[in-house]
Give the backbone structure.
Amino acid sequence: MNKHQVVRNYYVLPCCLLLLNLCVGVVSYKAQLIADHFIRTAAIIGMVLFGGTLVGLVATPAIGWAVTTLHRRSRRTAGIVGEILFLIALGAVVYWLYYRMYIIGPQAILPRSWRNPH
């Protein structure tokens, strides 16, 4: 297994899965607008199934292409230092989003127009 595959499998892929988990948290937050608990549960399941399909068919190839391009470009222009900086930046963005989601709340990562009224 080459070094690029190791980095992709053990760092980039888990970061993408963490981002997908953030999407599930946002779906659960938005579902709080539904008063009936049975309908809310069905809506969460439906949104996660639809979102998972959308992510699998559309977003994953797009994210994979973007990450590969940025990773390759940073490595080509700045060498190993560029690769390390790219991986640190990716980890920092994921950490920042998780911090905002779980410490401040899901509304902290959404635009104002998408937030639930309280």
